[in-house]
Amino acid sequence: MRKKLLLLLVVLSAGCALSFYLLTREVLQAPVKGQLEAFPPYGKKPHTVKFSYHITGAPADNLYLDFGGAQWKLPAEEKPFFNSYMRPGIFDVKLKAGETTLATAKVFIDTEGWEGYLYRTYEYPQTRKALPKNILQSGGILHTDPNRLGDTIRSAKEYFVEYNTVKDFGVDGDNLQFEVRFRSNEPGGGQLCNDMWFKLSGTKGILKMHFLASNCFAFVQMVFGEKQLDGHTQDLSVFAQEISDWKKARMVVENKQVSIYFEDRLIYQTTYNQPVGPILGISVTSKGAGETDYVKLYNGKKQLVFSDSFEEQQ
After folding, report:
1. Nearest to 297, CA basis, from 285, 311, 307
2. Between 183 and 122, residue with greater pLDDT
3. Percentage of the chain surpassing pLDDT 70?
4. CB contact set of 219 (below 8 Å; sequence gap of 6+)
5. Per-residue pLDDT tens over the stretch 93-124
6. The pLDDT value given to residue 69
7. DSSP 3-state assignment of 134?
8. Phi-psi category of 235—alpha, beta or left, where left has phi over 0 and alpha has psi -120 to 50?
9. Which domains does the chain have, with CATH numbers?
10. 17 versus 37: which is more confidently predicted?
11. pLDDT for residue 197 is more than 60
């Protein structure tokens, strides 16, 4: 009898140990996922933001917030972290475990008008240089004369100029209209392919359309919510247009359904699922020194909420 009880105890113990092992292995092998929230995401300088994060799956080692240069190590017990912003702009923050990005958040600090940046490499912060506000506009156009950028930049193989304006537009990113009139050509400082990007940044995502010169459409890169479009793997040739003279483009979003118009002609439609959130930033980027005549933003009721024809710095 004692031997049977002992054998039963051994079997039960082994079973429990195996179950514990399998459960532990399942937890440890579960992919690490993260959530990151910034609150409040918008303000005027100086502005302090509270970052809250949550981790699921296996315990994350080397957990930290990446502010695009500065990094701050985080405890595993998910305590909130606060960061103060002293200058305007749009800032990306990443929640990372080692080299893996688990989640991202954006912070928007009011620019009180437009700000400009010069990039040697497109959207690569390490190559970014702020431009003086007094050279961002001329003759009613958002445009920086290449002669004011310095000989090193003007002789470079390629460079990019970005303009941002950040404010609370009071517009839902999933229901809006955005209109822009622009051009890019060699006399104005455009470079090969003459790329022009127009981006609306929301608290949860972005809407970015891209136009460039004919025969360059393999380089088209666009984003609508979670959907990323790449001209290398999709036929996006309708975005390769003659843009050396003034052209008008319009993006209409209705309940996450996107329609793109070029010269009042519908050229493309797509949909996305994840909400973009309230729009807090407008960005215009060009390869070389592209020119923008005006931008207009309408809400879901087709009411004009923002317009700039660049007659003077706002």
Report:
1. 307
2. 183
3. 84
4. 193, 195, 212, 231
5. 999 988 899 999 999 999 999 999 998 877 67
6. 79
7. helix
8. beta
9. 33-109 (2.60.40.1930), 115-308 (2.60.120.200)
10. 37
11. yes
Amino acid at 63: L
HSE-CB at 189 with a 13 A cutoff on CA atoms is 25
Task: Give the span between the Cα atoms of 60 and 274, in whole angstroms.
Answer: 26
Q: How distant, in Å, are the alpha carbons of 84, 254, 277 from that of 229?
A: 34, 19, 20
Residues β-bridged to residue 197: 210, 285
pLDDT value of position 24: 43
- Whether 231 has a pLDDT exceeding 80, the answer reads yes
Residues in the chain: 314
Give dist(CA 247, CA 306) in Å, integer: 20
Q: 262: part of which helix (H) or strand (E)?
A: strand 257-262
* Residue 163, both tokens: 């303009």
Contact 140, 293 (CB under 8 A): yes
Tell me whether strands 100-109 and 42-43 are parallel, antiparallel or unpaired: parallel
- The DSSP annotation for 190-253 comes to B-TT--EEEEEEESS-EEEEEEB-TT-GGG-EEEETTEEEETTTS--GGGB---SS-EEEEEEE
Q: CA 151, CA 99: separation in Å to the nearest integer? A: 37
187 pLDDT tier (thresholds 50, 70, 90)? low
Enumerate the β-bridge partners of residue 50: 39, 82
**14/2 Cα distance (integer angstroms):** 18
Which position has the higher pLDDT, 262 or 34? 262
Cα-based distances in Å from 17 to 11, 23, 32: 10, 10, 25
Q: Tell how far CA 297 is from the center of its chain.
A: 18
Instruction: List the beta bridge partners of residue 48.
Output: 84
Task: Decide if 65 contacts 74 (C-beta within 8 A).
Answer: yes
Task: Note the Cα 291 to chain centre separation in Å.
Answer: 22
Residue 159 has pLDDT above 50, yes or no: yes
3-state secondary structure at position 29: helix
Report the alpha-carbon distance of residue 62 to residue 98 in Å, rounded: 5
Tokens of 196: 């022009």
